[in-house]
Amino acid sequence: MSTEIKILKQVLSKYSKPMTLTYPSTVAPERRYSQIPEGLRGIPERDNDKCIGCRACYFVCSGRATSIYDKDAKRTVEIFLFRCTFCAHCQEACPEEAIKMTNKFEIAVPNREDPAARVITELDLLKCKNCGNPYVTRKLVDRTYERLMEKIDTIVKETVSNDYKKLDGYCPDCRRAYGVDFDTHTKKYVWLEGV
Amino acid sequence: MGIMDKARIYSPWLYHLHCGGCNGCDIETLAALAPRFDVERFGIQLVPSPRHADILLTTGCVPKQFIPMVKRVYEQVPEPKVVVAVGSCACGGSLFYDDAPENYAILGHPDLLIPVDVYVPGCAPKPEAIINGVVQGILKLAEKRAKK
Amino acid sequence: MVDLIYTVVSLIVIVPLALFLGVVYSFLLRKLSARFQWRVGPMLRMYGDLKPLLGTSRLLQPLYDILKLYGKETVVPDVSRRRLFVYSPYLSLIFAVAAIFFIPFPGMPLLSGVPYSLIIASYLLIASILFTILGPIASGSPWAAIGARREVELFLVSELGFVLSIFAIAIARQSLVIWELSKGAQSVYLALLTVTAGALMFAAVLGKLHIKPFDMPEAEAEIVAGPYTEYSGKLLGTYYLSKAFLLYGLVALFISLFLPPLATDVLWLPLYLIAAFVLVFLLTAVQVLNPRYRIRNAINWYLKVVIPLGLLSFIIALAIWLVV
Fold first, then answer.
1. Considering only the top CATH level, what class is A38-125?
2. Which residues in chain B have Cβ-Cβ distances shorter than 8 Å to C72?
């Protein structure tokens, strides 16, 4: 009986204030949500301008939520949220810091095809100058060149840069098939080893 | 809108079906039912028997041994009913499901067995997200009628 | 003639009124236990922006539950004894409604003036509960069978307290008519009896309504939903309806027997309602502050409390009868 009286006292001391939040309602915005922590991994968001379609997120994705497919001269990079575990590996792996985990979490969709269930980026593919097949995104070529030039040794820089520009715009198949015609510098790797 | 339709919206009863999975979503679901979020404000109650339920709330990917139980519990819920899949496992199978080399033990998402009406992705979804999904489920429930 | 017409009209009026009050009492049970747990509970005033979707008030939440159940598919298991399974809820409802006719409401004596109305009312209340046991037994579910068995055991002991308390009052007042009991004059000795027999009746009401320490018949998470496991749709709704009537009936019987003049004249109506709300508050407090007993503990508790209190009440009642 004494414990019950203790409980009753405790209950009645805070009797006037229920601790319930007002969630779906917006009447009291400060009491709407529970605590949203600083590093909450919510729905991932991709910056369409920054994404270069490099597949780094595809390779690290543990739940196979990320898929990349080329169709009609477009490369689609998508995260299917139904398979996503919100682990933020793609955020870590992204070389361009295009993927950011937001702290949004309210998502409920009525069917699998709903656009809200996917984080989609569509990128235009570059067509091969020779055969006309789409093969890679423009941004990926440019960013690879930039990063290459940042890190490469000054001795080979000019040669590599010239070769890169000669090969630019051709798909890997065409490069292999018509390699001789490009007249690229064959010795650059030998020089690199010597440095 | 008649009084019966209103009553259907005003008192949706939940049955929580845990079919495989890591318990994360179940903990969040229970948090959504606890005093902090208190869904009884809107007449939502957790019922112990699927025969009383309006909303079937499933969590977790379905192990193969659990297939008959999922089907049976779904059939026990009287019409009109709505299924809300909570968590990435229940929505798309998440880490556990794969098409190509089929898993020997795990079927994947319950969507392969029963028609799901609302998906709440998240690993695990916050209680607010679950309440949001249940509210969408209620809206779907309002559209349905009992089969005569 | 006028009396007859008044009785017939009041019999027709009391059914929706009792339903409304029963629904309000069960709303209060839910709301108060929610507030005890620092929750909001079913909202009396819905949030402004959600009103178009979710309604303005949930005062009638238990009624909405019942209406919803009436709009749902009803599943009858193949293994059940179909007739008993299907008719039990309706019989339970009929007996609960019939019991209400014998319990007075302020301004409405109803049938409480007929001879032996106390015995008739208590029999009808017992019959109503009996059919919440018979239906589940016929359902063929092991969970329902376990729940029903627990309910039988609880029913036996709680009924003992119920019968002892009403007969202690009846002996002291030398009447078996509820209407006469409910307008009897108070005295010091009767007040003493009211305390002991009232406590006894309160304990019996706890068992009859499955309030928390005695909710083992429908122990959730333990034996699924107990007796109601196989019930769905209309049949479950009918059980809930009879529960609402039963809640009203027991509260009304308690007030008319133990708080005498309140259930007689229409002028007492505000006090009657206040007394009813206080009673519901006490039921809620017991429900919130107690864990669930095992059936053995519950029977022990009833026997420890019911037999001494019942004997005490009977001694007081006999003393009043013989001496005063």
1. alpha beta
2. 54, 78-80, 146
Any idea where the domains of chain A sit in the sequence?
38-125
Q: How many CB pairs lie under 8 A apart between chains A and B?
A: 95
Residue boundaries of the structural domains of chain B: 14-143
**C244-288 tens-digit pLDDT:** 999 999 998 888 888 877 777 778 888 888 989 999 999 998 888
Position A136 scores a pLDDT of 85
Residue C75 phi, psi dihedral angles, 5° rounding: -100, 130
- C110 and C14 in contact (C-beta within 8 Å)? yes
CATH 3.40.50.11260 assigned to domain B14-143? The reply is no
ipTM computed for the complex = 0.87
d(CA B74, CA C75): 13
Q: Which residues pair with A38 in a beta bridge?
A: none
- Does the beta carbon of A9 lie under 8 angstroms from any beta carbon of chain C? no
Select from A33, A40, A106, A118 the residue whose CB has the most chain B CBs within 10 Å, as the one to mutate to test that interface. A106
Q: Given a cut of 70, is residue A194 above it in pLDDT?
A: no
Report the pLDDT averaged over residues A1-13.
Answer: 76
**Chain A, nearest residue to C49 by Cα:** A25
Q: Where are the alpha helices (DSSP H) in C41-177?
A: 51-54, 61-70, 82-101, 117-138, 142-173
Mean pLDDT of A157-177: 82
**Does A112 contact B92 at a Cβ distance shorter than 8 Å?**
yes
Question: What's the Cα-to-Cα distance from C239 to each of A86, C88, C173, rounded to whole Å?
Answer: 46, 9, 35
